[in-house]
Write a structure and sequence with these properties.
two-stranded antiparallel ribbon; mainly alpha; two-stranded antiparallel sheet
Amino acid sequence: MKNHFHLLQLDLYFTEYKFALLCLVSAFVVTLISIPPIISLVRKYKLYDKPNARKEHTMPIPTMGGIAIIAGMAASLFLWFPFSTEPALISFFFSVIILFGLGIMDDLKDLSAKYKFIIQIALALLIAISGIRITSFGGLFGIEEIPVQAQFTITVLAIVGITNAFNLIDGIDGLAGGLGFMSLITLGLFLIMNRDGNTALIAFALAGGILAFLYFNFNPAKIFMGDTGSLVLGFVVAVLSIRLLQVNGAAINPALPNAPVFITGVALIPVYDTLRVFLVRMWKGNSPFSPDKTHIHHLLTNQGYTHGFASKLICFIHGFILIEIYFLRNMRMEFQLLLLIGFMLFVTVMLKRLGKLLGKNERVHEVIKEYLG
């Protein structure tokens, strides 16, 4: 069965998505069933995410919702994924298990950033050694194949950077989960279009778990995913992005002529926000890891907007980026990258001044709050 989406200019053969949908639905059901008992256990043992200078919530909220997300993903893949002894797969699942355990320990004991970075770098290096690494820029800046040493360095930086970017943007209800869900579905679709349906199952399985989690996480949140979920989410998005870059480059008819820039768009908001916040902190003479409220969502919540409004608006912007970067796929990649950077700078300024811009038109203000708040 074939369907053509004229607006998105996509040809989809729905029979190719059968197992992807089964993975998504299975993970959704398992996670949906798992979260209520996890909330009860967290409350029983008082494992709350407590307010501090970095956080927006004012009351202790149950955390470690990532346990349910990963449980849904694991159960789904156990049912539908064709496991093998391929080194890349073994390394990937081993890394997910280690990060899952690291996230639980961090949620329970608040581990030092240095300790977490060391483990993340080691796991990223393992993934690169297993064969999942950035080997080419696909013509971006005139660069095709890159030296082996640079492949390992760039891959480790990309995986560790994206992993922590999703971890850091998990600051308000529904934001990290919403961005992650959209990125995973996008990665899954294009992996299948590039004939890598097996890897796509991982994306859809995690997306299904996150979708169920969002039911409990949208404002007002009943539970947070914690580092247990956000570390695994960022890691999976990073690894699958690199995998898509590889299979797209090796395809006879690649689905993405602008794969390097499109992949940048998949994780653009978390990565851009992390870099922007770090640079601003260092410009002010502070440590890049010092707590403050300057993340992209804080630009809205500092003006009095709700978590729900901020999350939905930022997710809308993320969706707009993904659609537009696909529509502009035949434009020169350097121009696309410049447009992405310019667009994010524009978004930063607009979000920071949204209250003043809409303050003059109360009716517009009310309508926006009604649909996004």
